TrEMBL record:
Domain PglD N-terminal: 4-90
InterPro entries given in the database record: AcTrfase_PglD-like, Hexapep, Hexapep_transf_CS, PglD_N, Trans_hexapeptide_repeat, Trimer_LpxA-like_sf
Keywords: Acyltransferase, Repeat, Transferase
SUPFAM superfamilies for the chain: Trimeric LpxA-like enzymes
Native organism taxonomy: Bacteria, Pseudomonadati, Pseudomonadota, Gammaproteobacteria, Candidatus Kentrum
Site description Increases basicity of active site His, residues in chain: 147
Family the entry assigns: Belongs to the transferase hexapeptide repeat family.
Cited Pfam families: Hexapep, PglD_N
Binding site for substrate: 76
Active site, UniProt feature: 146
Organism: Candidatus Kentrum sp. MB
GO molecular function, one term: acyltransferase activity
Descriptive protein name: Sugar O-acyltransferase, sialic acid O-acetyltransferase NeuD family
The keyword Isomerase appears for this protein: no
């Protein structure tokens, strides 16, 4: 059994624990994961349990853990747009310590390129010609179609549909049930609101939402 520490205490962590339980049912004992603890910078959680798992300390404590312990980067919400990559770089951990986790009920076609630390939840479909950058999070029932490219630290909330030949920059968060038209480009560190329909490209550093999605609040 392999040791795992999860970075971040939030909804994604709860879903990841469910995913790990599913995977452990279907693998031999030596390939199963044992979650040793969670690290989060909320001091109110330290020394307590979150979702039945002990919170061992802050994120910086990851550097003091044994070298054979792996990590899962489960920090991903609209509040962390543009911050996930900075958090990771501050920790300076070896990317090879971040395995990808793919739920047994997800469909990832042969040929799809999956980066380090990617987490894929049940019901997700990824085309064989798609590329998922390192530390992508694809929540339940999201779809990534042919030739789409996701950058690093991208989060797709539940039910997102990424059409063919879409390019999504680093650090983007796309809200639940949003749809992206074929060929659009989303700049890095942009937030797309839930239920939005993106029919044209959106630049970096924006908040966009609506049907069709438009840049809001003076961003961009």
């Amino acid at each position: 059994m392999k040791g795992l520490c999860i970075l971040g205490a939030g909804g994604t962590t709860k879903d990841l624990l469910d995913l790990i339980e599913w995977k452990n049912r279907e693998t031999s004992s030596e390939d199963r994961w044992r979650c040793l603890g969670i690290l989060d910078d909320d001091r109110a959680l330290h020394g307590r349990e979150y979702a039945g798992v002990p919170v061992l300390g802050g994120l910086a404590d990851a550097t003091s853990l044994d070298a054979d312990i792996c990590f899962a980067f489960a920090i991903g919400s609209p509040r962390t747009v543009g911050k996930r990559k900075m958090i990771f770089e501050r920790l300076a951990l070896d990317r090879r310590r971040f395995p990808s986790f793919i739920h047994p009920k997800a469909v990832v076609e042969k040929g799809a390129a999956i980066g380090f630390g990617t987490i894929i939840f049940p019901g997700v479909v990824v085309s064989g010609s798609a590329t998922l950058g390192p530390f992508s999070i694809l929540l339940a029932n999201s779809v990534v179609n042919h030739d789409a490219v996701l950058g690093e630290f991208v989060c797709l909330a539940s039910g997102v549909c990424v059409s063919g030949d879409v390019a999504i920059g680093d650090g983007v968060y796309i809200g639940a049930n949003a749809s992206l038209r074929d060929g659009v480009r989303i700049g890095e560190d942009t937030l797309i609101g839930l239920g939005s329909v993106v029919v044209s490209s959106i630049p970096s550093g924006c908040t966009a939402y609506g049907v069709p999605a438009r840049i809001r609040d003076g961003s961009g």
